[in-house]
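name: query_chain
kind: protein
chains: 1
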Amino acid sequence: MKYHCPLLPDHIYHVFNHAVGNENLYRETANYQYFLDLAVKHIIPVMDVYAYCLLPNHFHFLIRVKDIHQLIQSYTIQKEKEPPFDTDWSKYVMQQFSNFCNAYTKAYNKRYNRRGALFLDYLKRSQIYGVEYFCNCVHYIHYNAVYHGLCGKIEDWYWTSFHTMLRVAPSKIDRSVVIKTFEGKHQFLSFHSGKPKISGDELEFI
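structure:
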């Protein structure tokens, strides 16, 4: 499994990272919410988010990097100028993820009188190929808290996009794509009733 592939426009990826050492990324409820607020600021402009799960010491996102035209628009708004013709879009997207993690680390360190890095120094990612892999990855991400023994059932963990998929209120999660891929909410719930089929290399880091 290649965990350092470039984040290319209009491609789907499972991205995840872990706290350094025995640290936790989130010590209290406010940390989880602030992390998601920063994701809206830094990630949503360059990526569509299909699923997520936040655990005390690591996180998972299933994302699609936006297409070239959307990235150009994001770049222009952010930097107040048009991007160079030879812009490395993978590098640009990675920089937004870096800005996201750095902003959270800075606020976290200030809140807890802490110093130094909070995340491992690289973002692991694997590209998603095909509908079956997509559905299995969504299931695995939502199942992650159960896998780590933090709860008994998927629906018992609050910091996951699972609950969002079943609501109708506006959301930053692109749930329409997810539900359509599962061919409806009933099939989505049925798919989530067992254990995920993802295994092997995909579990190496998690």
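note: The chain has one domain: 12-203.
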